[in-house]
Amino acid sequence: MYNSKIIGLGHYVPDNVVTNDDLSKVMDTNDAWIQERTGIKERRHVVSGDGDTTTTMGVKAAKIAIERAGIDKDDIDFIVFATLSPDYYFPGPGVLVQRDLGIKTVGALDVRNQCSGFVYAISVADQYIKTGMYKNILVIGSELHSHGLDMTTRGRGVSVIFGDGAGAAILSREEDNSKGILSTHLHSEGQHAEELSLIAPGMGKRWVNDIIADNDPNDESYYPYMNGQFVFKNAVVRFSEVIIEGLEKNKLKSTDIDLLVPHQANLRISQFIQKKFQLTDDQVFNNIMKYGNTTAASIPIALTEAWEEGKVKDGDLVVLAAFGSGFTWGSVIIRW
Ligand SMILES: CC(C)(COP(=O)(O)OP(=O)(O)OC[C@H]1O[C@@H](n2cnc3c(N)ncnc32)[C@H](O)[C@@H]1OP(=O)(O)O)[C@@H](O)C(=O)NCCC(=O)NCCS
Asked: Residue 305 needs a FRET pair 20 to 30 A away by CA distance; which of 11, 166, 188, 287 works?
């Protein structure tokens, strides 16, 4: 059995900065409310028509990760792509990355686990490397939320939170079992599936033919729905549980954590976790202030920025943790 380790990281966000004041021009919201409740100051939105999609952003992040890993694209044995905002209903973006990067015909898998998507994707890639099946795996988290949000006052509880962007990692074989990804921990509770969801278009409740027939401008099922307070309450509990689970599995304590990179759901959630585990500001990486919640992209963007800022060093204990729609949640324990 091998371990896997992250040998290259990259991220890409669109240039277009959307501030809280910008949003207050199109909906009844304000900078003070958004900052107080979420910590978000601004986010990036793809400008319609400028060519960026979930896939192209993922490809841009991947190119940086591949270069930093010091490998060739043809060394990649498998692709895992996490997103809730694919370019097409099907096929998923994994194959589009294989095409756009000109990688040989390796397997490409799409992961549909929203805010936990990157943690799930890393876990999948880690298993393939552990068994020796693959040596180098490209893992991408990318989201284009802005084209699907309700940018009116009706959607303000959701739309001010989410932003666009992508992050990527190259996972590679590590022969020293005390290094790299030590363990991953995944959970779900489908009982709360609809509490944070986008119902239509879907082949279950809303057939495409119904949608076309209805053409109802008041139908909110096309927009993401979030029961914010319920999500918040579950998030703080599940984040804590799954971090503890990962630490205990490796006989570690919270005092051993060098860097926690939580999914950037809400600065208040990160602060709650920081306080609970008695971590310093330096031990928790947050960038939600700049990008909002980019769901599957949030951890790889944050991890890349942390690494670029020299906050991830050889031998550090790095913990990734996520919670989101599904509900799904998970953690990754890494000895860098
Ligand atoms: C979304 C969230 C910030 C909302 O904060 P909250 O304190 O729960 O606010 P509420 O939804 O109770 O709304 C409070 C009031 O603010 C209003 N409001 C909602 N969005 C607003 C906005 N963008 N601007 C101004 N007012 C807003 C509501 O209409 C409500 O008004 P009312 O009291 O007159 O009815 C918070 O619940 C949250 O962060 N939840 C977790 C979200 C999350 O992590 N999601 C991702 C999961 S990974």
From this structure: 188
Please write the tens of the pLDDT for every residue from 77-108. 999 999 999 999 999 999 999 999 999 999 99
Place of tokens 């630490």: 247
Tell me which residue range forms the domain holding 45: 3-174
- Please give the model's pTM, rounded to 2 decimal places: 0.96
DSSP state of 293: B
Residue ending a domain, among 159, 174, 189, is 174
Can you tell me the distance from the alpha carbon of 292 to that of 90, in angstroms, rounded to the nearest whole number? 27
Specify the 3-state DSSP secondary structure of 151. Answer: coil
Model pLDDT, residue 115: 98
Residues within 6 Å of ligand 1 by CB: 29, 33-34, 37-38, 115, 156-157, 160, 196, 226, 228-229, 231-232, 235, 265-266, 269, 293, 323-324
Instruction: Indicate if 144 and 187 belong to the same structural domain.
Output: no
Q: Residue 231 is encoded by which pair of tokens?
A: 């999500």
What would the pLDDT profile of 135-146 be if each residue is shown by its tens digit? 999 999 999 999
Domain count, the chain: 2
